[in-house]
Amino acid sequence: MKIYTVDAFTDCPFKGNPAAVAIVDEIPDDGTCQKIAAEINLSETAFVEGLGENHFHIRWFTPKVEVKLCGHATLASAHILHQEKLVSSQEIRFESLSGELKVYISPSDYTLDFPLSKTEEAIEPSSMASISHFGKIIQVSRVEDDVIIELPSEEQIRNYFPCIDELEKIDCRGVIITSKGTGYYDFISRFFAPRVGVNEDPVTGSAHSKLAYYWQKRLNKSDFKAYQASERGGEIGVSIMGDRVNLSGKAVTIFSGEWQVSLP
């Protein structure tokens, strides 16, 4: 089994979000996938199995659990398939726990075609003691399995020092903090998911499938330049197309190697 590490949503090594990509003849059983992901210990490891021409099965594992959707590891997987000439088309189809996902390859970047998350439930901030450490909050919303916390300023997002113990108390997959951008970017964000083994994710495609609808309603537009302000940082182009969202970014291969242990 060959494994690659890729920095996604960047064209600079050691920026963006690193993901592991395992290209396999057959995806191993759940327990083996989880052990491999824990051993690699990146925020996500993608396992990719061929189903037909330009058609693949993909699963994503954090060091702790399998997840239903992961943007940066999907982009990383498309990048490796393209780089290794394992696809013959500019369109790749992935079968996943979130249904069929498509990635489009252009000379400049990769575009993920993901479902747009439109469900938003407002939450009264005073009802959540675990978020009191944020100080002033504009709005709190639950979007599917994540919680979005809008803060007043980009500076507050960039300077926030995460209280992981408090974030882990919030009943959700992940906590997204976001604000309107003040310059080149329409909005910025950060993403924390200690409940699934990721204290802070550097750049999170799946979070932007939720942020897209959130900011569409507030900025009255459908195309955005977004920045995830983690220490590594990363840029995402976001475009809403009906009930889908296109997430665009670049990728850089960092490492490749062979798994040396026999699999069950």
Automatic annotation (TrEMBL):
Gene3D superfamilies, A to Z: Diaminopimelate Epimerase, Chain A, domain 1
Pfam family for this entry, one: PhzC-PhzF
Source organism superkingdom: Eukaryota
GO MF annotation list: isomerase activity
Keywords: Isomerase
InterPro entries xrefs: Phenazine_PhzF-like
GO CC terms in record: cytoplasm
KW ATP-binding (keyword) present: no
Signal sequence interval, chain numbering: none
Residue numbers annotated as active site: E44
UniProt family annotation: Belongs to the PhzF family.
Protein name: PhzF family phenazine biosynthesis protein
Organism from which the protein derives: Parthenolecanium corni
